[in-house]
Amino acid sequence: MTASGSSTTATPAPAAGRLGTLPPELLIIAGTLSVQFGGGVATSLIREYGPLPVVAMRILFGAVLLVLFQRAHVRGAGRGALLACVALGLILAAMNSLFYVALSRIPLGVAVTIEFWGPLTVAVIGSRRLLDLLWVGLAAVGIYILTGGRVGADDLVGVVAVFGAGFCWALYIGVGGRVAREWPDGRGLTIAMLVASAAVLPVTMALSDVRPLLVAVPALAGGLVIALFSSAIPYTLEIAALRRLPAATFGVLMSLEPAIAAGFGFILLGQVLKTSDLLAIAMVAVASAGASLTARRLAATPGELEAA
């Protein structure tokens, strides 16, 4: 990632110009691969240190990485733009915390698939084409299959947490789009991550013992990897894609995540899913592929990837 400057009139950096020639769908896929790799690393650390310390590392280190590439000053920003950043930061803190609680109890691929109910709802509300609704309905059936058999004590907590994360994901799509429009130079994402850090750190310190983590150098290095692949890279790509995609199309395209998450869960964590789970995840993936093929491309706006 490179930062091209602190104002919306700054000349895009060469790397940003090259990214600007890529279709927004490709940016979403790249972000999905990145975030699910980070999710696999995070699950390994969650087993050892618990969800809140790991999510705190992800958000804090992610904010630091973004600050290094994009200054977070608020000079010239309006009240509405600042409130959008605060809202996005709180959403990111809640979404990541709930999702990591879910990862401590249910498999990665299952968690990501259930979480899709949030963007699924956005797609239903925003779509006016019957074919898009067909893809959404197919994904909904897959989610129902996954949730139906998970009513045990531990799994139930994970399912409830991931449904909450899905609600936050739906909010993230709408508020993220607002931040992308208000802060075309990318500062908004950096400010939002700083807000998320300020929200999650006190909760983590109050509810978790972080001392073992602070003296474990490999774990801290893992936290940096998570921050890079689960926050800094994918959020930047997603915010950029939101500038060129309608919220509904973005939400459906993001349903590629379940299949990718299941793959990383198997490769990195040895999580073997039941046939019914794989069928349900495949249904969501097919729905996403169908939506990708029928989605209408929008013209790119010059300079929109300045902060990518």
Describe the structure.
There is one protein chain. With 308 residues, the chain is mainly α. The protein has one domain (22-292). Helices cover 76% and strands 0% of the residues. It contains 14 helices and no strands. Helix 3 runs antiparallel to helix 4 and helix 4 (79-103) packs across helix 9 (187-207). The longest helix has 30 residues, at 153-182. The N and C termini lie close together (5 Å).
Q: Which consecutive residue ranges, at least 5 long each, have pLDDT under 50?
A: 1-17, 296-308
Could you tell me the radius of gyration in angstroms?
A: 18 Å
* Overall 3D form: globular
Number of structural units classed as domains? 1
Order of helices and strands: HHHHHHHHHHHHHH
What is the secondary structure topology, with strand pairs?
Blueprint: H1 14-20, H2 24-49, H3 51-69, H4 79-103, H5 108-115, H6 117-126, H7 130-148, H8 153-182, H9 187-207, H10 211-214, H11 217-242, H12 247-253, H13 257-269, H14 275-294
Helix pairs in contact: 2-3, 2-11, 2-13, 3-4, 3-9, 3-11, 4-8, 4-9, 5-8, 5-13, 6-7, 6-8, 6-12, 7-14, 13-14
